[in-house]
Amino acid sequence: MRFFTFILVFFSVLSITQSVYASVLSLVGDQSTLKVGDVFSIEVLMDTQGEMVNAIGATVVFPDFLHFVKSEEKDSHIPLWVQHPALKSEHISFEGIIPGGLDGQTRIVTRLYFEVEQEGQGLVSFREAQVLLHDGLGTESEVVTEGFHVTTVSGTATRPLRPSLDDEPPSPFTPTILKDADVNGGQTSLIFQTRDTFSGVSHYEVKEGLFGLFKRVESPYELQKEDGTMIVVRAYDYAGNMREAILYPHRYAAYVPEYVVFFSILLVCILFLLALFFFLRKRYYVRSL
């Protein structure tokens, strides 16, 4: 009988221990009553409960009386986004990686902004959620999710969406080149991430080579050229401000920019042609005498 009691206690303690160490994903927002036209934010928070994790992915659903405006990652603890929070088929999806892992206290994953379109009551919640342990095996952590209840009423909006007064560009950043089997199938990829204090980062654009064209991309971006060409990354915030970062090719000593080499060659050619022109002109002038 004592042995049976011991077994029950042992498995009860084990069960409690497992639940204690489950990662908790929660949606937290302002509890005040919202009015039609108001814009408010909900923070996506993660508490690893002492576990070391290195990846997160989730799908968030919300009532149809809300309109998703944007996401903001300025306070996020996710340094590498495989998929930035974005609206897809009436739900918001995102995936992020944390190189080196993350554990400890509650951390902000992202901040979601919504606009109230109608009166109503509903729940913003997780449809799917996945957290991977930083154990080298990609083991899934047990995940507990917590939603956020929203109540909206008619009336004059007290927090409408106003034009941004943000005139500051996103923070300076340094893109890096990575070749990892877990990123873009092992292809050479460009990793970039920055923050914007006021309106948040809207999107990124990348140009490869001096004469390349800018195109809208997300990090990690699979490079189309692997010949050491110059790479330019531009980060735009929601107010339209832009921050530019340049990666110079390694083939030039002291990272001499490609455009410096190009214009140096062009200048030499122009000087040569001018010298040739004046030489021929002088020679022709002498002969005419």
What are the main properties of this structure?
289 residues; alpha+beta; five-stranded mixed beta sheet; 18 strands; Immunoglobulin-like; 42% strand
Topology:
Blueprint: H1 2-20, E1 23-29, E2 34-35, E3 39-47, E4 53-61, E5 66-72, E6 80-88, E7 91-102, E8 107-116, E9 120-133, E10 143-146, E11 148-153, E12 176-178, E13 189-191, E14 201-208, E15 215-217, E16 221-222, E17 231-237, E18 242-247, H2 258-288
Could you characterize what this model shows?
The protein has 2 helices and 18 strands. The protein has 289 residues and is of the alpha+beta class. It has 2 domains: 23-153, Immunoglobulin-like (Sandwich), CATH 2.60.40.680; 176-256, Immunoglobulin-like, CATH 2.60.40. It has a 6-stranded mixed sheet, with no helix packed on it. A 5-stranded mixed sheet has the order 5-8-3-1-10, with no helix packed on it. The protein has a 4-stranded antiparallel sheet with strand order 15-14-17-18, with no helix packed on it.
What is this structure, in a nutshell?
By secondary structure, the chain is α+β, with helices and mostly antiparallel strands. It contains two helices and 18 strands. A six-stranded mixed beta sheet has the order 2-11-9-4-7-6, with no helix packed on it. A five-stranded mixed beta sheet has the order 5-8-3-1-10, with no helix packed on it.
